[in-house]
Amino acid sequence: MNNLVNILGVNITDASYEEIISYIDEKIINQTKFSFSYVNVNIVLRYCRDKEFKKNLYAFSMLFSDGVGVFAASKILFGKKGLRERLTGTDLYSYILNYANEKKLKCFFFGGGDNAVKLLQDELNKKFPGIQISGILPRETNFNKETIEKLRNSDADILFVGLGTPYQEDWIAKFSETINIPVKIAVGSGIEFISGAKKRAPLFFRKLGLEWMYRIYLEPKRLWKRYIFGIPIFIFKIIIFKVKLLVNK
After folding, report:
1. What is the spatial distance between Cα 222 and Cα 125, in angstroms, rounded to a whole number?
2. Is residue 8 part of a domain?
3. pLDDT for 163-199, tens place per residue?
């Protein structure tokens, strides 16, 4: 999985769900440290304007595409050499949980609100009974020595970090190397969805790549600026990037 697609400076690994799972499996077997995160339109725009965030993204072993925006941008910029598949983070987390369930792996969940944390264990036990839950901590947890020690002593194979952007990227950049959990994943709101605290868009919306519209409907106060202002800015930047590519051909 060495094929990278550059979207406004962000190098995204061109990989399928199955290839990512295969890579995770290899890292767990070899006990090699590996951290990865999703890249959507919001992440790319923050990368373009925030130097500290840019530095934190460089600390990840791999970045994968999340959502229709980045996928479409890759096709506009590079055509057939763009990303092969449109991935979504929430679908990928389901693949990972199924894999962990089959392998009976130990998973630690760090993040999510109080309601998600309350629901998470029962939801995991119901859907993924083979997973061994090494620990669950809400996102409001203080980042103190006690928290770090809990993670270090958890003996987990996979750590899901759902602190939201840019906090999870900052946390993983700072602490990933000091925590002996092979695989660390920045999941954003993923723990909310895994627990059932937040509902995904109907399948119809997902197939059309319109899950973002459903999320605005559910959380307008939190998300409207991100999409209403972010999408036009992203499209403008992609057009400029495309012109530069054509000029430099």
Report:
1. 31
2. no
3. 999 999 999 999 888 899 999 999 999 999 999 999 8
pLDDT tens digits, one per residue of 101-130 = 999 999 999 999 999 999 999 999 999 999
Domain membership of residue 5 (yes or no) is no
DSSP-H helix ranges across the chain? 17-30, 41-49, 51-58, 68-78, 89-103, 114-127, 145-152, 167-175, 190-195, 203-207, 211-218, 220-228, 230-247
- What is the number of domains present in the chain? 1
| pTM of the predicted model as reported, rounded to 2 decimal places | 0.93
Residue 214 lies in a domain: yes
Bridge partners (DSSP) of residue 13 are 4
Query: What whole-number distance in Å separates Cα of residue 197 and Cα of residue 70?
Result: 26
Distance CA 31, CA 25 (A): 10
* Domain limits for position 230: 14-247
114-126 exposure pattern, b = at least 16 Cβ within 10 A, e = fewer:
eebbebbeeebee
